[in-house]
Amino acid sequence: MTIFLKMSVGVTFLRPFSRFLVPFTLHRKTNLYSTVLQRCMSSKIPAVSYPDKESISSPEQLELDGWKTTMKSSVQEEGVPPVSSNKDEDTQAATRELIEMWRLLGKEVPENITEEQLKAIMECASKSSKKKYLKFLYIKEKLKKAKQIKKERKAAAKEEAKQAMLLETTEEDKQQNFPFLRVWDRRINTAMNWKGAQAMQFGQPLVFDMDFDNYMKPKELQNAVSQLLESEGWNRRNVDPFHIYFCNLKIDGAYQRELVKRYGEKWDKLLLTATEKSHVDLFPKDNIIYLTSDSPNVMTTFKHDRIYVIGSFVDKNMQPGISLAKAKRLKLATECLPLDKYLQWDVGTKNLTLDQMMRILLCLKNTGNWEEALKFVPKRKHTGYLEISQHSQAFVNRLKKAKSFNSFPKGSYVHKEKVA
């Protein structure tokens, strides 16, 4: 009861002054609201100052060149490297980092990669192709290491056998044996070089067409160069070698770089002819025969007065008709080996390697016997020999009866007199 009375008394006391208090409170509230609104607007919308045109155009206040110099110096002091303008270096660095990351992940990546191999990796179109090429380099490096280890073990075993042999032999045996071996090796090399020099002057030309480097991948080109090295070695060791021509060999091309890399200092001392010219520019077209497995014309006998041309490329992607198309463009005669005539063909393509072609042609040149020549065809591709034709057998028998090739009249070839 006491509280209620006090509240009623307060209300009744303030009621006469209400008309004076209400305008005052409304005025105070309005000023408060406006002040708060202004503060909110000023905090959300930043004040924009419009500088004078004179201050913008004055170069003394801007000094952009000085500002750039200061920023560059500060970046260098902090140790932050400047942005590289050379995109090739950045790409090489990124490729090396990617290869290093794959190596850490345990993938098949070679330990040493040359600049040429790095460029080849950068030229790969996709990541899977890069992995395949790196795997190829890894396997190649692994085989090279295994071969080197095998070679070292073989040299060590040979040295041990030599030492054991030295303990058993006397001083007289040493003086007789070792000088003889050194002279024998020197004489062999001299005889081979002499035959190669004679072949370059009087030998039958054999052309390797090197105009197919654009059709091969780096791995296939390396295989082709390996086969060329084998071919040159077999030719050099033969009794009657060919005069080898490397035609359409581009200077500083992929083929020449790989050949110089393989041969090293011996490249300039090889007894063969390497030229940029085409075989059509060096020899008459009527004397040229292009050997290709796609030719419809089957080779019957070896012609000693013709120039045989072999397309120097490895075709693992199965691109048939490339060499045949080129021979037709140049209007050259084409032939293929009579594999179906003498061999029971089983599986695989009829494209032989360059060194196999070299050995077959050398055997045909020396003997004219197809059965002997086709022994160099891999046995995995056929199941045996067919019956040799009577014409070929009679020709071989006549050659065996002849004492030597010199018994024929001078200036004539064997195939001209013996083949009707």
Structure explained in plain terms:
Component of mitochondrial ribonuclease P, a complex composed of TRMT10C/MRPP1, HSD17B10/MRPP2 and PRORP/MRPP3. Interacts with HSD17B10/MRPP2; forming the MRPP1-MRPP2 subcomplex of the mitochondrial ribonuclease P complex. Interacts with GRSF1. By secondary structure, the chain is of the alpha/beta class. Among the domains are: 96-153, no CATH class; 203-418, Alpha/beta knot (3-Layer(aba) Sandwich). It has helices at residues 2-14, 18-44, 53-57, 59-62, 64-78, 87-104, 115-123, 127-168, 171-202, 218-237, 254-263, 279-282, 322-329, 339-342, 354-366, 370-373, 390-401, 414-418; strands at residues 205-209, 243-247, 273-274, 288-291, 307-311, 333-335, 343-345, 382-385. Helix 6 (87-104) crosses helix 7 (115-123) and helix 10 packs parallel to helix 15. It is globular, with a radius of gyration of 44 Å. The model is unreliable at 1-14, 17-30, 42-62, 77-85 and 403-420 (pLDDT under 50).
Name a few traits of the molecule:
about 60% helix; alpha/beta; about 425 residues; 18 helices; Alpha/beta knot; two-stranded antiparallel ribbon; 6-stranded parallel sheet; disordered C terminus
Question: Layout of helices and strands, plus pairs?
Answer:
Layout: H1 2-14, H2 18-44, H3 53-57, H4 59-62, H5 64-78, H6 87-104, H7 115-123, H8 127-168, H9 171-202, E1 205-209, H10 218-237, E2 243-247, H11 254-263, E3 273-274, H12 279-282, E4 288-291, E5 307-311, H13 322-329, E6 333-335, H14 339-342, E7 343-345, H15 354-366, H16 370-373, E8 382-385, H17 390-401, H18 414-418
Parallel strand pairs: 1-2, 1-5, 2-3, 4-5, 4-6
Antiparallel strand pairs: 7-8
